[in-house]
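Can anyone check this?
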Amino acid sequence: MHSTLKPWQLCLFILAGWVNREQQELIEYLTAENKVLKEKLGKRRILLSDGQRRRLAVKGKVLGRKRLREIQTMFTPDTILRWHRQLVAKKWDYSDRRKSTVGRPRVRQVIVDLAIKFAKANSTWGYDRIQGALANVGYHITDTTVGNILKAQGIEPAPDRKRSMSWSTFLKAHWDVLAAIDFTTVEVWTKNGLSTFYLLFAMELKSRRVHFVGCTANPNEAWMKQAARELTACDDGFLNGKKRLIMDRDASFCESFRPLLADEGVEPVQLPPRSPNLNAYIERFFRSLKSECLERLIFFGERSLRNAVREFVAHYHAERNHQGLANELIDAGDETEELDGEIQTRERLGGMLRYYHRAA
Protein backbone atom coordinates (compact mmCIF):
# COMPACT_ATOMS: atom_id res chain seq x y z
CA MET A 1 0.00 0.00 0.00
CA HIS A 2 1.48 3.25 -1.07
CA SER A 3 1.19 6.29 1.14
CA THR A 4 1.07 9.71 -0.41
CA LEU A 5 2.53 12.72 1.36
CA LYS A 6 0.05 15.41 1.97
CA PRO A 7 1.01 18.96 0.85
CA TRP A 8 1.59 20.19 4.40
CA GLN A 9 3.77 17.15 5.18
CA LEU A 10 5.81 17.79 2.04
CA CYS A 11 6.31 21.46 3.04
CA LEU A 12 7.38 20.39 6.53
CA PHE A 13 9.85 17.88 5.08
CA ILE A 14 11.35 20.50 2.74
CA LEU A 15 11.54 23.07 5.57
CA ALA A 16 13.28 20.58 7.87
CA GLY A 17 15.83 19.84 5.17
CA TRP A 18 16.47 23.55 4.62
CA VAL A 19 16.90 24.19 8.36
CA ASN A 20 19.27 21.23 8.60
CA ARG A 21 21.31 22.56 5.66
CA GLU A 22 21.45 26.04 7.24
CA GLN A 23 22.64 24.56 10.53
CA GLN A 24 25.26 22.47 8.74
CA GLU A 25 26.58 25.52 6.89
CA LEU A 26 26.72 27.42 10.18
CA ILE A 27 28.63 24.56 11.85
CA GLU A 28 31.04 24.36 8.91
CA TYR A 29 31.75 28.09 9.18
CA LEU A 30 32.34 27.94 12.95
CA THR A 31 34.60 24.91 12.47
CA ALA A 32 36.63 26.79 9.86
CA GLU A 33 36.83 29.82 12.15
CA ASN A 34 38.09 27.60 14.99
CA LYS A 35 40.79 26.21 12.69
CA VAL A 36 41.96 29.73 11.86
CA LEU A 37 42.08 30.70 15.53
CA LYS A 38 44.01 27.55 16.43
CA GLU A 39 46.52 28.29 13.66
CA LYS A 40 46.96 31.85 14.98
CA LEU A 41 47.40 30.73 18.57
CA GLY A 42 49.79 27.92 17.76
CA LYS A 43 50.94 26.25 20.96
CA ARG A 44 50.10 29.16 23.22
CA ARG A 45 48.00 28.16 26.19
CA ILE A 46 44.50 29.63 26.53
CA LEU A 47 43.66 30.54 30.12
CA LEU A 48 39.96 30.37 31.03
CA SER A 49 38.08 31.42 34.13
CA ASP A 50 36.09 28.88 36.15
CA GLY A 51 32.90 30.34 34.72
CA GLN A 52 34.10 29.91 31.14
CA ARG A 53 35.15 26.30 31.80
CA ARG A 54 31.77 25.62 33.36
CA ARG A 55 29.89 26.91 30.30
CA LEU A 56 31.95 24.75 27.92
CA ALA A 57 31.67 21.70 30.17
CA VAL A 58 27.87 21.88 30.27
CA LYS A 59 27.57 22.24 26.49
CA GLY A 60 30.31 19.70 25.76
CA LYS A 61 28.75 16.94 27.87
CA VAL A 62 25.60 17.10 25.74
CA LEU A 63 27.59 16.65 22.52
CA GLY A 64 29.82 13.82 23.69
CA ARG A 65 33.41 12.96 22.77
CA LYS A 66 32.73 11.82 19.18
CA ARG A 67 30.88 14.95 18.07
CA LEU A 68 33.37 17.20 19.84
CA ARG A 69 36.13 15.65 17.74
CA GLU A 70 34.13 16.20 14.56
CA ILE A 71 33.77 19.94 15.08
CA GLN A 72 37.46 20.38 16.00
CA THR A 73 37.02 22.46 19.14
CA MET A 74 39.69 24.77 20.58
CA PHE A 75 40.02 22.32 23.49
CA THR A 76 40.30 18.56 23.28
CA PRO A 77 37.18 16.50 24.03
CA ASP A 78 38.97 14.88 26.99
CA THR A 79 39.67 18.33 28.46
CA ILE A 80 36.06 19.46 28.14
CA LEU A 81 34.73 16.21 29.62
CA ARG A 82 37.24 16.44 32.48
CA TRP A 83 35.87 19.89 33.28
CA HIS A 84 32.41 18.34 33.35
CA ARG A 85 33.52 15.65 35.80
CA GLN A 86 35.06 18.31 38.05
CA LEU A 87 31.83 20.28 37.88
CA VAL A 88 29.84 17.21 38.97
CA ALA A 89 32.30 16.40 41.76
CA LYS A 90 32.16 19.96 43.08
CA LYS A 91 28.37 19.82 43.16
CA TRP A 92 28.41 16.85 45.53
CA ASP A 93 31.35 17.63 47.81
CA TYR A 94 29.28 20.09 49.92
CA SER A 95 32.39 22.22 50.53
CA ASP A 96 30.26 25.35 50.53
CA ARG A 97 28.25 24.01 53.48
CA ARG A 98 31.10 22.85 55.68
CA LYS A 99 31.98 24.79 58.79
CA SER A 100 35.36 24.55 60.41
CA THR A 101 35.09 23.52 64.03
CA VAL A 102 38.81 23.17 64.72
CA GLY A 103 41.01 25.93 66.13
CA ARG A 104 40.25 29.56 66.89
CA PRO A 105 37.71 31.53 64.85
CA ARG A 106 39.17 33.60 62.03
CA VAL A 107 39.74 37.31 62.61
CA ARG A 108 37.15 39.39 60.80
CA GLN A 109 38.40 40.88 57.53
CA VAL A 110 37.50 44.42 58.58
CA ILE A 111 39.88 44.08 61.56
CA VAL A 112 42.65 42.67 59.36
CA ASP A 113 42.26 45.53 56.89
CA LEU A 114 42.36 48.16 59.63
CA ALA A 115 45.42 46.64 61.31
CA ILE A 116 47.28 46.69 57.99
CA LYS A 117 46.12 50.25 57.29
CA PHE A 118 47.25 51.52 60.70
CA ALA A 119 50.65 49.81 60.39
CA LYS A 120 51.37 51.17 56.91
CA ALA A 121 50.25 54.70 57.75
CA ASN A 122 52.16 54.85 61.06
CA SER A 123 55.63 53.38 60.75
CA THR A 124 56.49 53.92 64.45
CA TRP A 125 53.44 52.10 65.84
CA GLY A 126 54.11 48.75 67.50
CA TYR A 127 51.66 45.91 68.08
CA ASP A 128 50.35 47.38 71.35
CA ARG A 129 49.75 50.79 69.79
CA ILE A 130 47.84 49.25 66.89
CA GLN A 131 45.85 47.10 69.34
CA GLY A 132 44.87 50.26 71.22
CA ALA A 133 43.90 52.08 68.03
CA LEU A 134 41.66 49.17 67.06
CA ALA A 135 40.05 49.21 70.50
CA ASN A 136 39.32 52.92 70.04
CA VAL A 137 37.08 52.07 67.09
CA GLY A 138 35.40 49.10 68.76
CA TYR A 139 37.55 46.13 67.70
CA HIS A 140 39.19 44.18 70.53
CA ILE A 141 41.98 41.72 69.74
CA THR A 142 45.28 40.87 71.43
CA ASP A 143 48.63 42.35 70.48
CA THR A 144 49.71 38.82 69.49
CA THR A 145 46.88 38.69 66.96
CA VAL A 146 48.01 42.07 65.60
CA GLY A 147 51.50 40.65 65.18
CA ASN A 148 50.19 37.56 63.38
CA ILE A 149 48.17 39.72 60.99
CA LEU A 150 51.15 41.89 60.09
CA LYS A 151 53.54 38.94 59.76
CA ALA A 152 51.13 37.25 57.35
CA GLN A 153 51.28 40.38 55.18
CA GLY A 154 55.07 40.62 55.33
CA ILE A 155 54.94 43.84 57.39
CA GLU A 156 57.90 44.21 59.72
CA PRO A 157 57.65 45.16 63.42
CA ALA A 158 57.86 48.86 64.26
CA PRO A 159 61.61 48.96 65.11
CA ASP A 160 62.41 47.78 61.58
CA ARG A 161 59.46 49.37 59.82
CA LYS A 162 60.14 52.89 61.02
CA ARG A 163 63.57 52.94 59.38
CA SER A 164 61.87 53.17 56.02
CA MET A 165 59.13 55.45 54.75
CA SER A 166 56.75 54.82 51.87
CA TRP A 167 56.96 57.20 48.93
CA SER A 168 53.38 58.40 49.44
CA THR A 169 54.13 59.15 53.11
CA PHE A 170 57.24 61.09 52.11
CA LEU A 171 55.25 63.18 49.63
CA LYS A 172 52.54 63.98 52.17
CA ALA A 173 55.09 64.89 54.84
CA HIS A 174 56.86 67.42 52.57
CA TRP A 175 53.96 68.44 50.31
CA ASP A 176 54.15 72.18 50.99
CA VAL A 177 57.89 72.47 50.29
CA LEU A 178 58.33 69.85 47.58
CA ALA A 179 59.17 70.34 43.90
CA ALA A 180 60.27 68.11 41.03
CA ILE A 181 62.51 68.61 38.02
CA ASP A 182 63.04 66.60 34.84
CA PHE A 183 63.89 66.69 31.14
CA THR A 184 61.87 65.81 28.10
CA THR A 185 63.03 65.91 24.49
CA VAL A 186 61.76 66.99 21.08
CA GLU A 187 63.20 66.95 17.56
CA VAL A 188 63.84 70.36 15.94
CA TRP A 189 64.91 71.23 12.40
CA THR A 190 68.02 73.42 12.45
CA LYS A 191 70.57 74.49 9.85
CA ASN A 192 72.47 71.30 10.71
CA GLY A 193 69.45 69.09 10.11
CA LEU A 194 67.24 67.39 12.66
CA SER A 195 68.52 67.95 16.21
CA THR A 196 67.36 66.69 19.60
CA PHE A 197 66.54 69.49 22.03
CA TYR A 198 66.32 68.95 25.78
CA LEU A 199 63.57 70.83 27.62
CA LEU A 200 63.99 71.29 31.37
CA PHE A 201 60.94 71.85 33.58
CA ALA A 202 60.41 72.23 37.31
CA MET A 203 57.07 71.67 39.07
CA GLU A 204 55.60 72.67 42.41
CA LEU A 205 53.77 69.46 43.30
CA LYS A 206 51.10 70.89 45.58
CA SER A 207 49.80 73.42 43.05
CA ARG A 208 50.94 71.61 39.84
CA ARG A 209 52.45 74.93 38.74
CA VAL A 210 55.29 74.40 36.25
CA HIS A 211 58.28 76.49 35.26
CA PHE A 212 59.99 76.20 31.87
CA VAL A 213 63.64 76.45 32.86
CA GLY A 214 64.91 76.42 29.28
CA CYS A 215 65.88 74.28 26.31
CA THR A 216 69.18 73.38 24.69
CA ALA A 217 70.70 70.87 22.33
CA ASN A 218 73.58 70.39 24.77
CA PRO A 219 72.70 70.36 28.49
CA ASN A 220 76.33 70.51 29.61
CA GLU A 221 77.65 71.37 33.05
CA ALA A 222 77.81 75.13 32.40
CA TRP A 223 74.20 75.20 31.21
CA MET A 224 73.02 73.19 34.22
CA LYS A 225 74.85 75.42 36.69
CA GLN A 226 73.19 78.47 35.18
CA ALA A 227 69.82 76.73 35.46
CA ALA A 228 70.46 76.06 39.16
CA ARG A 229 71.30 79.73 39.76
CA GLU A 230 68.12 80.90 38.04
CA LEU A 231 65.94 78.42 39.93
CA THR A 232 67.27 79.60 43.30
CA ALA A 233 67.62 83.33 42.56
CA CYS A 234 66.75 85.44 45.60
CA ASP A 235 64.12 87.61 43.94
CA ASP A 236 62.14 85.38 41.61
CA GLY A 237 63.65 81.89 41.72
CA PHE A 238 61.00 79.23 41.17
CA LEU A 239 62.41 77.11 43.99
CA ASN A 240 62.25 79.86 46.59
CA GLY A 241 60.54 78.44 49.67
CA LYS A 242 61.10 74.85 48.56
CA LYS A 243 63.14 72.49 50.71
CA ARG A 244 63.37 69.36 48.55
CA LEU A 245 63.66 68.77 44.81
CA ILE A 246 62.86 65.35 43.31
CA MET A 247 65.04 64.35 40.37
CA ASP A 248 66.02 61.16 38.58
CA ARG A 249 69.58 59.96 37.97
CA ASP A 250 69.93 61.56 34.54
CA ALA A 251 73.61 62.31 33.92
CA SER A 252 72.65 65.88 33.04
CA PHE A 253 71.97 66.53 36.74
CA CYS A 254 75.72 66.76 37.23
CA GLU A 255 77.70 66.78 40.46
CA SER A 256 78.07 70.56 40.44
CA PHE A 257 74.31 71.07 39.88
CA ARG A 258 73.22 69.44 43.11
CA PRO A 259 75.59 71.34 45.46
CA LEU A 260 74.41 74.66 44.03
CA LEU A 261 70.87 73.73 45.04
CA ALA A 262 71.95 72.53 48.48
CA ASP A 263 73.83 75.78 49.11
CA GLU A 264 70.51 77.62 48.69
CA GLY A 265 68.66 75.32 51.09
CA VAL A 266 67.12 72.98 48.48
CA GLU A 267 67.93 69.32 49.14
CA PRO A 268 68.13 67.15 45.97
CA VAL A 269 66.15 63.90 46.35
CA GLN A 270 67.45 61.39 43.81
CA LEU A 271 65.08 58.63 42.74
CA PRO A 272 66.13 54.98 42.51
CA PRO A 273 67.21 53.81 39.03
CA ARG A 274 64.43 53.06 36.53
CA SER A 275 61.58 54.40 38.66
CA PRO A 276 59.74 57.04 36.58
CA ASN A 277 56.49 56.37 38.47
CA LEU A 278 57.99 58.03 41.54
CA ASN A 279 58.09 61.29 39.59
CA ALA A 280 54.55 60.75 38.33
CA TYR A 281 53.29 64.35 38.56
CA ILE A 282 55.85 65.85 36.21
CA GLU A 283 55.66 62.77 33.96
CA ARG A 284 51.91 63.39 33.64
CA PHE A 285 52.64 67.00 32.65
CA PHE A 286 55.02 65.76 29.95
CA ARG A 287 52.29 63.51 28.55
CA SER A 288 49.98 66.52 28.22
CA LEU A 289 52.73 68.71 26.77
CA LYS A 290 53.56 66.13 24.11
CA SER A 291 50.04 65.04 23.15
CA GLU A 292 48.57 68.56 23.09
CA CYS A 293 51.53 70.52 21.72
CA LEU A 294 54.91 69.01 20.81
CA GLU A 295 53.63 66.03 18.81
CA ARG A 296 51.28 68.24 16.78
CA LEU A 297 53.85 70.74 15.54
CA ILE A 298 57.01 70.78 13.43
CA PHE A 299 59.67 73.07 14.86
CA PHE A 300 62.12 75.05 12.75
CA GLY A 301 64.75 76.45 15.08
CA GLU A 302 64.92 77.02 18.80
CA ARG A 303 62.82 80.19 18.72
CA SER A 304 59.73 78.42 17.35
CA LEU A 305 60.11 75.75 20.03
CA ARG A 306 60.39 78.28 22.85
CA ASN A 307 57.35 80.23 21.63
CA ALA A 308 55.22 77.10 21.44
CA VAL A 309 56.25 75.92 24.90
CA ARG A 310 55.55 79.32 26.47
CA GLU A 311 52.09 79.37 24.89
CA PHE A 312 51.35 75.89 26.18
CA VAL A 313 52.55 76.72 29.70
CA ALA A 314 50.32 79.82 29.76
CA HIS A 315 47.39 77.67 28.61
CA TYR A 316 48.28 74.97 31.16
CA HIS A 317 48.12 77.43 34.06
CA ALA A 318 45.18 79.65 33.18
CA GLU A 319 43.02 77.79 30.68
CA ARG A 320 43.30 74.04 31.29
CA ASN A 321 41.31 72.22 33.95
CA HIS A 322 43.21 69.64 36.02
CA GLN A 323 41.66 66.43 37.31
CA GLY A 324 44.21 66.24 40.11
CA LEU A 325 42.97 69.63 41.37
CA ALA A 326 39.26 68.75 41.43
CA ASN A 327 39.02 69.76 37.76
CA GLU A 328 39.87 73.38 38.57
CA LEU A 329 42.20 75.86 36.87
CA ILE A 330 45.59 76.55 38.45
CA ASP A 331 45.34 80.31 37.87
CA ALA A 332 41.66 81.06 37.36
CA GLY A 333 40.99 84.48 35.83
CA ASP A 334 38.22 86.92 36.70
CA GLU A 335 36.21 85.72 33.71
CA THR A 336 35.40 82.47 35.53
CA GLU A 337 33.12 84.48 37.84
CA GLU A 338 31.03 85.75 34.92
CA LEU A 339 27.69 83.99 34.46
CA ASP A 340 25.77 86.13 31.97
CA GLY A 341 28.21 87.34 29.31
CA GLU A 342 28.51 85.95 25.82
CA ILE A 343 30.60 82.78 25.54
CA GLN A 344 33.89 83.55 23.82
CA THR A 345 36.89 81.51 22.68
CA ARG A 346 40.54 82.23 23.36
CA GLU A 347 42.89 80.43 20.97
CA ARG A 348 46.61 79.71 21.09
CA LEU A 349 48.96 78.14 18.56
CA GLY A 350 46.62 78.74 15.65
CA GLY A 351 43.57 77.33 17.41
CA MET A 352 45.28 74.15 18.56
CA LEU A 353 44.68 75.17 22.19
CA ARG A 354 41.26 76.58 23.04
CA TYR A 355 39.69 78.08 26.15
CA TYR A 356 36.00 78.99 26.47
CA HIS A 357 34.86 81.74 28.82
CA ARG A 358 32.17 84.37 29.22
CA ALA A 359 32.83 87.95 28.21
CA ALA A 360 33.28 90.41 31.05
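Reply from J.R.: I decoded it. The beta strands are 178-190, 193-204, 209-216, 244-247, 267-270, 343-348, 353-358.
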